[in-house]
Amino acid sequence: MTGTVFNIQRFSIDDGPGIRTTVFMKGCPMRCTWCHNPEGLEYGPQLMWFDVRCIGARDCLSACPKGALELTGSGMVIDRELCDACGACSEACPAGALEVVGNESTPGEVFDEVARDEAFYRNSSGGMTLSGGEPAMQPGFSSDLLKLCSGAGFHTALDTCGYASPDVLEGLVELADMVLLDLKIIDPLVHMELTGVDLEPVLQNARMISGKGKPLWIRTPVIPGCTDSSDNIAGLSSFICGLPTVERYDLLAFNNTCGAKYRRLDMEWKLDGTPLVTGDKMEELASIAREAGVPNVHWSGATRER
Ligand code: SF4
Ligand code: SF4
């Protein structure tokens, strides 16, 4: 049993209580217009080229058994139909300009990495957060990792987008100590347009999760022109007030630094060049949620002054 993990972030303080290690699983059923982790969307490993590191050594070209690389005047062209992310080019590059994102690992291997920070979890009431992408896309791996962490006494959090088979998600929720759930858009048509999936299964899963009685933190990314309207936050707040186990609501300010990751994957990012949200806007939206009765509302992230 292996899973595909694209990042293991140690000393994380934004993904649940205390100091945590966040394990990012590859593969997501949604396609949010603003997604900050494009390297987590596809299930399989992918090759990334870092233009700023490339010294034009060309060792990668001869190392590729598929002939999938071409270094042109405007940069590296990766034939993604041919490339199987074998990593030979990455090993050959003396400058580290090519990297395969997404490692096949066993739950035990990832657990060993997570366990390195056991002392920090104990001292801060932290633990391990399973995130993505969407952990429910790799249910066997996710279950085993949650069991290994719980067996070692580590607090566990499941970070989910909520769009998953209810049975699969329920199984993972039962294994975790708490859940972080993203709720983005309350209008069904806009939700479909900007995330690519139906809203209703997400809302049904939110009710199912809340019915499990575990601590639930809800998170909404505040994205200019997508999720940042007063009506959207008011509508989400009204829904959240109907979930009895919600302990906290986080509004996460738009992060506009991920354009480079899209370019490294030859993907277009529609929000390239979009400015940050203002602090006043974040405060205004947080006030709407508080006035609607949502408990423990916070906002965070980089903002601009005006
Ligand atoms: S749910 Fe999260 S990981 Fe998936 S596309 Fe949306 S923002 Fe990206
Ligand atoms: S990852 Fe493998 S197949 Fe893809 S470009 Fe590099 S060497 Fe070629």
Brief summary of the model shown:
This protein has 306 residues and is α/β, with parallel strands linked by helices. It has 11 helices and 13 strands.
Describe this structure in words.
The chain is globular. By secondary structure, the protein is of the alpha/beta class. A nine-stranded mixed beta sheet has the order 7-1-2-8-9-10-11-12-13. The chain has a two-stranded antiparallel sheet with strand order 3-6. The chain has two domains: 238 residues, Aldolase class I (TIM Barrel, Alpha-Beta Barrel), CATH 3.20.20.70; 56 residues, 2-Layer Sandwich (Alpha-Beta Plaits), CATH 3.30.70.20. The longest helix has 13 residues. The mean pLDDT is 97. The protein has eleven helices and 13 strands. The site of one iron/sulfur cluster (SF4) has 14 residues, from helix 2. One iron/sulfur cluster binds next to loops.
Topology:
Layout: E1 3-12, E2 20-25, E3 46-49, H1 59-63, E4 69-72, E5 75-78, H2 88-92, E6 98-101, E7 103-105, H3 107-115, H4 118-124, E8 127-131, H5 139-151, E9 155-160, H6 166-175, E10 178-182, H7 188-195, H8 200-211, E11 216-222, H9 230-241, E12 246-253, H10 259-264, H11 279-291, E13 297-300
Parallel strand pairs: 2-8, 8-9, 9-10, 10-11, 11-12, 12-13
Antiparallel strand pairs: 1-2, 1-7, 3-6, 4-5
Helix pairs in contact: 3-5, 5-6, 6-8, 9-11
One iron/sulfur cluster is lined by residues 28, 30-32, 35, 37, 40-41, 132-133, 161.
